[in-house]
Amino acid sequence: MDFVKKILHQISRKSEAVSQITFDEDYNVPDARPDVGRMIQKKGEVTIGDVQISEGKARVFGGLTFHLLYVSDGERRRICQLSGELPIDETIHLDGLTGGDKVCITWEVEDLNLHLINSRKLGVRAIVTLHAWIEELCDLAVPMEIRGESDVAVKRQEYRVVELAVQKKDVLRVKKELTIPSGKPELHEILWQDLEVRGLDLRSEEGRVSAQGELFVFCLYSDGEEDHPLQWVEQALPFQAEVECQGCISEMIPRIESTLGQTTLEIQPDSDGEERVLQAEAVLELDICLYQEETVSLLQDVYHPHRECIPKVQEETLESLLIRNSSKCRLTDKLQMRVPKNKILQICHSDGKIKIDEERIVENGIEVTGVVELRALYVVSDDEMPFYAAETAIPFRHTIEVPGIGPDCRYELQSSIDQLSTTMPDSSDIEAKVVLNLNALVFRRRKEMVMQYVEEKDRDPEELQKLPGITCYFVKPGDTLWDIAKKFYTTTDKIRELNELKTETLTPMQQLLVERV
């Protein structure tokens, strides 16, 4: 028997591993930068340059880039910045990795610490965690029909399944311009910058993936005059953008991971030739997976009145969508001040990132535990050196409601900062309020015996002769017309016709006449 089969596309993780890199290095301040006196604020990110794949191993090349805002040492102190990079060359062992596999890598910088050895040398300590996994596309062929056979009766079972419809990687570029307010001086040198994307909403539409959100831009700058105070500007710039996505439709279920890649902030002249425009660009690296949900009617069993049919089955995993839930977690905390003796005059800028420590399935939900690492740059009542920074980590524990979740489920979790604000309840404290997006896409996985092929044999003539030509059968609990027809080598149509049945509904102890074909 020849099957008509449907191919269900699925994605799975073939193997995964975690590797930690510890940095404890000395870094010499470049000759072009002034001596370091007091450090104000730091940040760091990882750049993955190349991944070389061999049998069972992935060799990762890249770098840890760190940035420092500091006060120069000497008689005349001023605010300066420097950036440095430490190389990464790490081998990650992944079971089953071969040359044609696709390796995905994410990174996390933990415990970045810059300390002053002397005015020309810094100690750089950090832990970088690399998460690597192999994504594997699997095609599951399931039987839907039997081609070119007459007198074959089939038994079907309907399943609600979800399959991968579209998978691709793409890049979304967000470009915005920010004009310096007329009351502020022109731009001369950017000393510190932060570009963040918040409130990002990614949706599948006809032939495209649309994005909207806000690009948060912060810039601390000097106007080139030594006796003038430093200036800063901060603004949220709404944006809308899209990327082409062939085969995408609005009814699909999106799971789109976005990673903020390269960001740039450049000084540009305005229409009058004055340097009063900031051109901001952020690159979002998109990992697009779109799922489609449908009902399929799979063959469960077959029989032929004149031939013995033995279905050969194999256990397979079918996935269905349990729930797609978007949850918000609200947090409030106060930041520790480094200089309590000075009054806080103004908050310049605040930013944060989410670090998830644990996620686990609980009753009717997914419990997520972690911290939000916050930084705030602020001005105090010190005319000579007013800039300071504060850091804090706000712990959180939040349960995403998922009714019916259990050990037979798998889920994909996405987290992002939706809103972040810092206020001054008084002149000595900074209060932070954060709203987190914690979104879960949950699938139920069912083990089912899926028919692969049917072995056919001629029926034993002697055995057929022993069977009565007509039988009076009393229906048992759980019986169906199909089961009875198969047992007595007849057809469901023949049973309905002989017993004048209008429906296939049977009741226990119902009497049926069954005639062998």
From TrEMBL:
Question: InterPro entries in the record, alphabetically?
Answer: LysM, LysM_dom_sf, SipL_SPOCS_dom
Q: Domain LysM spans what residues?
A: 471-514
What SMART domains would the database entry show? LysM
Q: Could you identify this protein by its name?
A: DUF3794 domain-containing protein
Q: Where does this protein come from, organism-wise?
A: Fusicatenibacter saccharivorans
> Could you read off the lineage of the organism from its UniProt record?
Bacteria, Bacillati, Bacillota, Clostridia, Lachnospirales
